[in-house]
Amino acid sequence: MSQNNVVVVGAGVIGLTTALVLSKHKNLNITLVSKHMPGDYDIEYASPWAGANFMPVGKEGSKLRAFERATWPEIDRICRDIPEAGIHYQECKVYGRKKDEGTAVGIWFQELIKEDPWFKDLMPEFKILDKSELPPSCNTGTSFKSVCINTAIYLPWLLGQCLKNNVAIKRGIINHISEAPSHHTTGTASVVINCTGLMASKLGGVMDTTVYPGRGQIAIVRNEPGAMHTTSGTDDGPEEAMYIMQRAAGGGTIIGGCLQHGNWDSQVDPSLANRILQRAVDICPSLAPKTGKVTELSIIRHGVGLRPMREDGIRVEKELIGTRDQDLWVVHGYGHAGYGYQSSFGSAFAMEELVLGIVNKNAPKAKL
Question: Where would I find the beta strands (DSSP E) of 100-176?
């Protein structure tokens, strides 16, 4: 019977995490299909480019806040108990500037930079920084214990856990959501999980016009900052950001960046790259302790990633789509912007609930 056959479309952090969570239900027969897989670096595939860390930004009443709250215990557990997943703890220092209110980056960080944030009881070792600990340009600051993830290790680890739990993994290009069931190993499925990220804007049967790119640009260096640092904005422009985070297990230090709404450009902007590096050295002198200059940075590479933004935020809901052959249940899970890793398990748990509701409702009743 196809009623327990599930196809997950997309192998970013949301698709892989959702497949892993669903794979713990032995009655589900899961195939994950994706154009891109861990190990690939493509402008359509956002997850490898991410920092990636855990800095809560969800607003009150939002799905994002609920998903972040549900995700932290899982990420914390993996970091503590599973070193091969490529996650490590790192102090996170957040600096706020009043003049950034209303800018693209200021809005992005507005929950994060509060001195009395909702997550103060969620994130360990939360404290307000003394004024003497702030950079000269900043008015407020906090710190807490967080994590930074080596995406080059973590994404393959998620994939490996899926394989361990008998999820079939296939490469494939899907032009219309109705094509997904044919990619299942049995050739049919009754439930499709749409974790296509930015490509939800171009996928037939979905074509979500409210999805758009939030361009980010990064540099990866060998220098060690000693802690994660981020500010609510920069003097270089309202769409430019400053964040520094050291990936686990030799993954290098990520320096960024920007949040350029609607920009699809995949090429590195050399001028922006120089500004990114200069801001990092200015805010974190330990990156260049000898000279205090950008030339002291040992650059591994520059990169560009497109965050899968959505005007109304994350979409997690089910939809019944009529196809030529059958009615197909689609569970959507996309629009995670720059928060995929820190909302991954919460999103997956929400999609799990929807899938089980569909499968259990469609299950044949026992004849008495």
Answer: 127-128, 140-149, 168-171
Q: Tell me the CA distances in angstroms from 149 to 2, 228, 250, one per residue in order.
A: 37, 12, 11
Residues 6+ apart with CB under 8 A from 360: none
Residue 35: closest CA among 134, 143, 171, 167: 171
* 338 belongs to an annotated ligand binding site: yes
Q: Which two tokens stand for residue 57?
A: 């930004």
Name the residue type at position 144.
Answer: F
243 known ligand binder? yes
The mean predicted confidence, pLDDT, of the chain is: 95
Both tokens assigned to 207: 């074509």
Could you list the beta-strand ranges (E) of the chain.
Answer: 5-9, 29-34, 87-96, 127-128, 140-149, 168-171, 191-194, 211-221, 228-231, 240-246, 253-258, 260-261, 299-310, 315-322, 327-334
140-149 and 211-221 as β-strands: parallel, antiparallel, unpaired?
unpaired
pLDDT at 366: 45
User: How far apart, in whole angstroms, are the C-alpha atoms of residue 45 and residue 246?
Assistant: 21
216 annotated among ligand-binding-site residues: no
307 is in an annotated binding site: yes
Q: What parts of the chain have a pLDDT lower than 50?
A: 1, 366-368
341-358: b or e for each residue (b if 16 or more CB lie within 10 Å)?
A: bbbbbbbbbbbbebbeeb
Nearest in space to 347 (alpha carbons), one of 6, 75, 151: 75
Q: Which pLDDT value is given to residue 245? A: 97
Q: 19-54, pLDDT tens digit by residue?
A: 999 999 999 999 999 999 999 999 999 999 999 999
Q: Residue 325 in 3-state DSSP?
A: coil
DSSP label of 227: S
Longest dimension (CA), the chain: 81
Q: Which residues contact 301 (CB under 8 A, 6 or more apart)?
A: 219, 220
- For residue 152, is the peptide bond before it cis, meaning its omega torsion is within 30 degrees of 0? no
